[in-house]
Write a structure and sequence with these properties.
CATH superfamily: HIT-like
Shape: globular
Helix content: 25-40%
Radius of gyration: 16 Å
Oligomer: single chain
Number of strands: 5
């Protein structure tokens, strides 16, 4: 059997699961690099998903800890989706995907890993990006490191 070695991913799969909300980042920017924060706006921020479905899988969340979109005021909602657009344009320029899956999982039954803090997933897609790996070996091949993507998307 052939093996795909990705030793750089070990630190992500061995992270201790925190009970704290990963989206409650606070105002201090000192941990932005460690947490892969790409951009902050007045009411929202964008960060790389450290367990990506695809290269440049970005999550955009409001700064305020709320469960649903309906809990956001109009300024927060507009800022959140403006940041989704900004990040999509950055990914377009850098990686030129053929399309996107952009969506929200609201509530644990809908697949939300963090059901208490609403967030938008931006998953770039390319023709042929799904292949046999997830089907036969429950493995996803991610070709770019998070550090490399983080620096490129911040520019």
């Amino acid at each position: 059997m052939d093996k795909i070695w990705a030793p750089w991913r070990k630190k992500y799969i061995t992270l201790k699961k925190s009970k704290k909300c990963i989206f409650c980042i606070g105002k201090k920017r000192s941990s932005d690099k460690k947490r892969y924060i790409l951009k902050r706006s007045k009411h929202a921020f964008a960060m790389l998903n450290i367990y990506p479905y695809n290269n440049a899988h970005v999550m955009v969340a409001p700064c305020r800890h709320v469960k649903t979109l309906a809990s956001l005021n109009n300024k927060e909602l507009l800022d959140l989706f403006n940041l989704v657009n900004i990040m999509t344009k950055k990914i377009d320029k850098l990686l030129k995907p053929a399309g996107y899956n952009i969506g929200l999982n609201i509530g644990r039954v809908a697949g939300a890993g963090f059901p208490g803090h609403v967030h938008v997933h931006i998953v770039p897609r390319w023709i042929g990006d799904t292949n046999f790996m997830p089907v036969i070996s429950n493995t996803k091949v991610i070709s770019c490191s998070l550090d490399e993507l983080c620096e490129a998307l911040k520019k």
